[in-house]
């Protein structure tokens, strides 16, 4: 079986195991991915190669699933997958390790990509000017070294770093994407997370339950990350239990979320208020937290003072909450528990 055909069959079999068939738009993208994979499988002797690929589209259309399934089917070990939040956490830590060297950023990027020929960047989005500068340096670095880049995003390249005050900061990065990557819009009328009926594993095994706010817990636990102390309700038996305020209304960041997603295989988040009742920083932290929990595929029990449809309707007023809204619909909504 030829490598392109093998890749297509492998991804289709993965879809069947997950209980669905690819739609027409997803099949067209799979053909493009398989073309890329077939080239990579032939090695470096070819003079021409398909361009890197930037896939964007609305939430829940299957971008990350397809790219992950394709990545899993690639036969070579020289490949690296990074998620937006994990990438910047790892990059900042590596820059710190190389801080005494003149080329600290480039050395840090080399630490992440190592000897890879393929860099898969999942959920690429840019809202911070500092991240924009680092991401531009990453793109310039990997394209100069001839790496093939596969990226997924909810944003078309021109819509990255959408704040008009700072958009110009990422224009060099956008230019690199357009110069070196084919841009593919995975479109379709259905957010497949809204029709998910499989609640057997991973994040989708979690629940959303409407419950009144509780009295603040009398016993709390202190857990530390990189020398910083954080208060949670409990952290026992491989489960982290914390209130919304403990996770999102204090000075937590994706660094802590990433650390805890690796340390605890089950989560429970309680006392979640209506989205609009939280301040803007707490809202963004909750959006980031959902990103991390979904990428780590951690089953999570959410309990809130409002039911999920009301929470999502409230969140629809905030830009960039659409990704969170799509992902929360993977959950099973349960009845009030006493």
Give a description of the structure.
The protein has 338 residues and is of the alpha/beta class. The chain has two domains: 3-185, P-loop containing nucleotide triphosphate hydrolases (Rossmann fold, 3-Layer(aba) Sandwich); 193-334, 3-Layer(aba) Sandwich (Rossmann fold). It contains twelve helices and 13 strands. The strands form three sheets. The chain has a six-stranded mixed β-sheet with strand order 9-10-11-12-6-13. A hairpin with a 2-residue loop joins strand 9 and strand 10. Helix 1 packs across helix 3, helix 9 packs parallel to helix 10 (280-296) and helix 10 packs across helix 12 (322-328). The chain is globular and about 60 Å long. The model has no long low-confidence stretch (mean pLDDT 90).
Compile the SSE list and pairings.
Layout (H helix, E strand, L loop, with lengths): L2 H15 L6 H19 L9 E5 L6 H11 L5 E5 H14 L6 H10 L4 E5 L6 H16 L3 E6 L17 H10 E5 L21 E4 L10 E5 L2 E5 L1 E3 L2 E5 H5 L5 H10 L2 E7 L7 H17 L3 E5 L3 H8 L6 H7 L3 E3 L4
Parallel strand pairs: 1-4, 1-5, 2-3, 3-4, 6-12, 6-13, 10-11, 11-12
Antiparallel strand pairs: 7-8, 9-10
Helix pairs in contact: 1-2, 1-3, 2-3, 4-5, 5-6, 6-7, 9-10, 10-12
List keywords for this structure.
12 helices, Rossmann fold, 5-stranded parallel β-sheet, 13 strands, alpha/beta
Query: In the residues, how many domains can be counted?
Result: 2
Mean pLDDT: 90
Supply the number of helical segments. 12
Shape verdict:
globular
Terminal Cα span: 57 Å
Helical/strand content category: alpha/beta
Total count of strands: 13
What are the low-pLDDT stretches, counting only 5+ consecutive residues below 50?
none
- How much strand? 15-25%
Give, in order, the helices and strands. HHEHEHHEHEHEEEEEEHHEHEHHE
Query: Helix fraction?
Result: 40-55%
CATH class of the largest domain: Alpha Beta
Largest sheet: 6 strands, mixed
Strand order of the largest sheet: 9-10-11-12-6-13
CATH architecture of the largest domain: 3-Layer(aba) Sandwich
CATH homologous superfamily caption of the largest domain: P-loop containing nucleotide triphosphate hydrolases
Backbone CA Rg: 21 Å
CATH fold-level name of the largest domain: Rossmann fold
